[in-house]
Design a protein that fits this description.
Number of helices: 13
Strand content: 15-25%
Number of strands: 15
Shape: elongated
Distance between the termini: 23 Å
Radius of gyration: 22 Å
Strand order of the largest sheet: 1-3-2-4-5-6-14-13
Order of helices and strands: HEEHEHEHEEHEHEEHHEHEHEHEEEHH
Oligomer: single chain
Structural class: alpha/beta
Length: about 375
């Protein structure tokens, strides 16, 4: 993955103009003549791929959109008989409309779908398969669905399991660990990350002292939830908090804002915050914080979407899969690693910043 993503990042010189839901212009169609086909693909044939993905102008989704645009441009430069159109949608209804439009055009060979939520797109996904169009689903599963070329995502269950193993070692000398948990939503991403961790930790030792907070992946909402919890609990309860478990670095940013602004009389004794991401801004939060709290996160980058774009294009063109994801029961899982300043991570902050994974993640610039 390192060499492949680095080579792509260094070769990209252009950015594809995004075709937003209900407007915008698609990339110019590929030449249907006898043009060459780069590294492969049927000579004399042309191919068209649609990417129906989430929308976003900031954060993980915004960065993912940018990476998808750049990878679409890169593969069209590689294959001059290929057209890739990108449709970015904020709502399930908009994604359904874009899928219907792509099917109605009659010239689409494959669709990559990053659903707002898997179940909401089940019927639309079925229409793709029924139309004989190859379908790849990214990140959020449509469970128990037949006829896909494959589903691709970060290895969320392994991330959760590794998080649980890390916590077991980190708190090995503690008799009881009180913790709060902040997740993004109710999708398979959340259930897999929580399930992997819960399968590993000792439930008699690790005591979740509040119902799980659902943040909608929002920094602001997480901050408000943390502030409300601090304001609603006694000094003894606040001081008993050892650990905060989260599923995203942007959630962590909000929690740190609340913890650093706390002005109550209780002493904060949080020793560790866990997360998923690998964001530069979040690492800097901990480097510049006056709080004595450590941080570990698992690499889950917006750049992951590049591999799924490649997979969809290769499926459309009948080429073998060239990526690094490992296939398991029809699901392609992109491997991860840990980054932290608490010791025993795969990378500390500076090692991660010097890595090819970091370079590719931030190849989109200051976004």
């Amino acid at each position: 993955m390192k060499k492949k993503f680095l080579a792509l990042a260094l070769s990209l010189a252009m950015v594809l103009t995004l075709a937003a839901c209900g407007g915008g212009n698609d990339p110019a169609p590929a030449d249907d003549g006898d043009a060459g086909t780069g590294d492969g693909g049927g000579a004399g044939e042309s191919y068209k791929v649609g990417l129906v993905i989430l929308s976003g102008d900031h954060g993980f989704t915004g960065e993912s959109v940018r990476h998808a645009e750049m990878q679409a441009e890169a593969v069209m430069e590689q294959y001059d008989n290929l057209e890739v159109v990108v449709k970015s949608c904020g709502e399930a209804a908009d994604q359904i409309t874009e899928i219907e439009n792509l099917i109605a055009a009659g010239d689409i060979d494959a669709i990559m779908l990053w659903p707002t939520e898997g179940e909401a797109l089940r019927s639309a996904a079925q229409t793709v398969v029924d139309a004989g169009i190859k379908l790849v689903v990214y990140d959020r599963l449509i469970e128990n669905f037949d006829g896909l070329e494959g589903q691709m995502m970060g290895d969320n269950f392994s991330i959760g399991r590794e998080m649980g193993e890390y916590l077991t070692t980190y708190f090995a000398d503690s008799e009881k660990v009180n913790y709060l948990r902040f997740v993004g939503d109710s999708s398979t991403v959340t259930s897999q990350r929580s399930g992997g961790m819960d399968e590993v930790i000792d439930a008699a030792k690790f005591n979740q002292i509040n119902e799980t907070f659902v943040t909608d992946w929002s920094t602001e909402k997480a901050q408000e939830q943390m502030e409300n919890w601090l304001n609603a609990h006694t000094n003894e309860e606040i001081e008993s908090l050892d650990l905060i478990v989260t599923h995203d670095d942007e959630i962590v940013d909000g929690l740190m804002n609340a913890l650093e602004a706390y002005s109550g009389s209780a002493t904060l004794n949080v020793k560790l915050i866990t997360s998923v991401g690998g964001r530069e801004d979040t690492m800097q939060k901990f480097e510049n914080s006056s709080l004595d709290v450590k941080f570990i996160t698992w690499f889950f980058a917006p750049s992951f979407i590049r591999e799924c774009v490649d997979f969809t294009v290769e499926s459309a063109m009948g080429l073998p899969f060239s990526g690094t994801a490992l296939e398991e029961n029809g699901i392609y899982l992109i491997p991860s690693f840990s980054i932290g300043n608490a010791g025993e991570a795969h990378y500390d902050f500076d090692q991660y910043r010097a890595s090819s994974e970091y370079e590719v993640r931030y190849s989109i610039g200051n976004f």
